[in-house]
Amino acid sequence: QEKSCCLSTALFGEDSEISQDQLFELLKYAALGKCHKAAQPSWCHIYHQSHLAGVVVVVLHEMSQLHFYRFYLQFKHLRKVFRHRFTLTPSANFPVSLYGEGTNLKPQNTPQGLTSTSSECITKSSDLQCDPIIRRYGDKKQGLTSYTLTLEEQKENDYPIEGSPGCKGYISTECDQQRTDSSPLFGLDCEMCLTAKGNEVTRVSLVDARGQCLLNELVKPERTVLNYRTRFSGITKKMLLPVKTTLSDIQTRLKKMLPHDAVLVGHSLNSDLQALEMIHPSVIDTSLLFARSEGRRFKLKFLAKAVLGKEIQCEQKLGHDPTEDARAALELAQFFIKQGPTKVAELNLEMLLTAEKLAEVSQNKTALQLQGCGFQEQLNEPPPLSKPCFLDCLQVTGQKPLLLGRQGLDSSGLCQSNLSTSNKQILQRALEDVPLSKFSIIQFSLGPEYIASHLHAGLYEKVRSKLTDMLTIYAGPFEENFCMKSVKKEFGRCGPIQSLTVVTETFQPYVCIQYEVLEAAQLAVESLNGAEVAGSCIKVQRPVTAAMLDCNVLIKELELDVENESVIYVAGLKKSLTETDLQEEFSQLKDLETLFLPKDLQSGKHRNCCFLKFQKSQSAVDALEAINGWTMKGSKLRSRNALAPGHLWRWIWQMNHSKGKQGKHIFYEKIEQLSDSEQDLRKKVKKLDHHIKKLYRSLQNNTLCVVLFPGVN
Predict the structure, then answer these.
(1) Beta bridge partners of 596
(2) By the number of CB atoms within 10 A of the CB, which of 39, 497, 515, 600 ranks highest?
(3) What's 655's DSSP letter?
(4) Mean pLDDT calculated for residue range 510-516
């Protein structure tokens, strides 16, 4: 039975705030897992990480929580699907911390050609001892057995191992480990497509030690193909239509072809063996053989050019040629064995790679200038020095993360990056490329015209004003000499009050009450409208403004939000009750998971209300019926469905306590301009939500998807 990945967290209420480092903990463990010695995040738990199909991070460039709340109704899909939401604490230059900056490495005596071995390129012997190849293999020539992966190395690099849980049903080549330095080498490479099963083989190539092709066969996938990956595999639907050869046929042929002491050579060969569902004990992996620092790996295309002087995987061809790739990997291993580690280290591959990157940057610069993309000023400056970033830690996998966007995101070589001119183009590339990558970052943007500071300030004022109106109720009319204490006591049973004032402009007195939580205001409207308070039968209503006309719709959507479906709000608690007291009082409620007692973030005193989170939504419904009418320590309780999750509760609190610090004149002089563009902005946000929906639906099962609103800071 397939294991399903899932994420759980105990964070709730005020704790629903995470730091940049905590986010990176989650992404690192999801991407690397235990096989690369990554630790479970400290604040949540991923179950069955080894079954994770991939990680996709969607970055909504320069959008923040403010945009999520302002366009809450427009983010319909986002609200429906993503049930875990957290406030990300502000951090300077968050995007740089995530995917890094460009590099400004300027090697002295840059070689003219990548295959040059002139004296200018040769590293001094004193420096060779620091080379990762010398550190790993020493400086003496050795036989091929010294370069085959040990069992431990195979485990660390996700090779199929006899008896391991993930290899049930895999076929063994039945070759033994009695290899010698004269054992025959065979180059192997596969092309894969994406099916409902995952990666399935569509083409297999095997070459012998002389480079002669022994096998070059198309394979019919077991399941329906979701993505042929033609751009990389060269495989099309038409090519596979007449194919009858199955994976089982290929496994049988390989078993017959390989002698008992065969050593298989490939580049990231673990992926090929996993797709073939075969186990082979003797392997040389050229992505690990040509060692780099910090677990990074060279691409096969680069190594073929730098070491062998051969061009492979040319862009003019449709997809990769597996025979060509198998032969290149084989020749690289033969070169390494024949020349020895010192000769390979003297090639100074890191410098050659840097030279190649600088050449690419120069070409991209010219291309962008010709396209008139507005990057000229940026590109005329030398690229900044590379800073450590989160993506550095992923290099141990040997696979470059995918980075799609339109901000000129990456020139550091950490990613397969691709610039597009619109969100639509980015989406199309993502639908094609994300299934091919284990870790993807997709950046969408509203465009520079929507992130101007005055528009941001205007949005903030509109959200603040609307939330203030939603927290406010008017009650009345009262008698002239009504008892204010009675009114405060009755309305205080619905939840914590921010302010209470008498309205004197009316014929009879009314009271304006502003609550600290949305649930309290809604509870007051629902339970006290038409009730007798302080000797008067009163009406309770919210302010009537243009912005409040959709208030009921918004309340309903908040109530149905997946974040709130198993959470209820309880008011009327005595402030003398501690959290332990409440845990005891509510312990009889079935499936109670967490209790959150809001506190004043300045004084630390808790409020007269709490939130209860249940394991099942039906248990929350049952608890609502049970609690309404309860008396706890002489106080009658009131309850309803929750409306504001922890991140919104904290945001409202901060908004209420910072509103006096903002200069109102900054906002209102620009409101008219904002109104003109906001309708267009709503359409853009709705379209953005639709893009996320399409991307999400295209993802494989067991994919971790994270959407970030990083803001401008």
Answers:
(1) 611
(2) 515
(3) H
(4) 95
Task: Tell me the C-alpha distance between 612 and 472, whole Å.
Answer: 24
Q: What is the torsional sign of CA 30, 32, 34, 40?
A: negative
CB contact at 8 A, 529 and 537: no
Give the pTM: 0.62
Query: In the chain, which segments carry CATH 3.30.70.330?
Result: 565-639
Query: Three-state DSSP class for 409?
Result: coil
| CATH 3.30.420.10 residue ranges for the chain | 132-349
- Contacts of residue 125, defined as CB under 8 A and 6 or more positions apart, other chains included, come to none
| Rounded Cα distance, 607 and 704, in Å | 36
Choose which CATH entry (3.30.1330.30, 3.30.420.10, 3.50.50.60, 3.30.70.660) describes domain 132-349.
Answer: 3.30.420.10
Other C-beta atoms lying within 10 Å of the C-beta of residue 653: 19
Q: Does residue 535 contact residue 524 with C-beta atoms inside 8 Å?
A: no
Q: Model confidence over 563-607: pLDDT tens digits?
A: 888 999 999 998 888 888 899 889 989 999 989 888 776 777 788
Query: Do residues 470 and 517 touch, judged by C-beta distance below 8 A?
Result: no
Q: Give the model confidence (pLDDT) of 277-323 as tens digits.
A: 999 999 999 999 998 876 778 899 989 988 988 888 876 666 688 99
Q: For 407-441, how does the pLDDT look when each residue is reduced to its tens digit (9 = 90+)?
A: 555 444 555 555 566 899 899 989 988 888 889 99
Residue 5 in contact with residue 48, Cβ under 8 Å? Answer: yes
Q: What's the per-residue H, E or C state across 471-526?
A: HEEEEECCCCCCCHHHHHHHHHCCCCEEEEEEECCCCCCEEEEEECCHHHHHHHHH
Long-range contacts from 200-204, C-beta under 8 angstroms, 24+ separation: 200/225, 200/247, 200/275, 201/247, 201/250, 201/275, 201/276, 202/228, 202/233, 202/235, 202/240, 203/233, 203/234, 203/235, 203/322, 204/250, 204/254, 204/276, 204/322
DSSP H helical segments within 372-422, as ranges? Answer: 376-380
User: How far is the C-alpha of 60 from the C-alpha of 703, rounded, in Å?
Assistant: 19
Prior bond to 477 cis, omega within 30? yes
The mean pLDDT value for 176-201 works out to 90
What pLDDT score was predicted for residue 634? 82
Give the pairing of strands 283-285 and 6-9: unpaired
Measuring CA to CA, how many Å separate 576 from each of 414, 580, 608? Answer: 56, 11, 9
Q: Check residue 416 and give its pLDDT.
A: 57
- Burial label for 671, CB within 10 Å (0-12, 13-18, 19+), is middle
Report whether 117 contacts 111 (CB < 8 A).
Answer: no
Contact 193, 228 (CB under 8 A): yes
User: Among residues 358, 391, 380, which one has the least CA distance to residue 100?
Assistant: 391
What's the pLDDT score for residue 514? Answer: 95
Would strands 87-88 and 213-218 be described as parallel, antiparallel, or unpaired? unpaired
Q: How far apart are CA 254 and CA 276, in angstroms?
A: 10
- Spell 537-548 as b/e; 16+ CB within 10 A means b: ebebebeeeeeb
Q: How far is CA 623 from the centre of its chain?
A: 35
Q: In terms of CATH architecture, what is 565-639?
A: 2-Layer Sandwich (3.30)
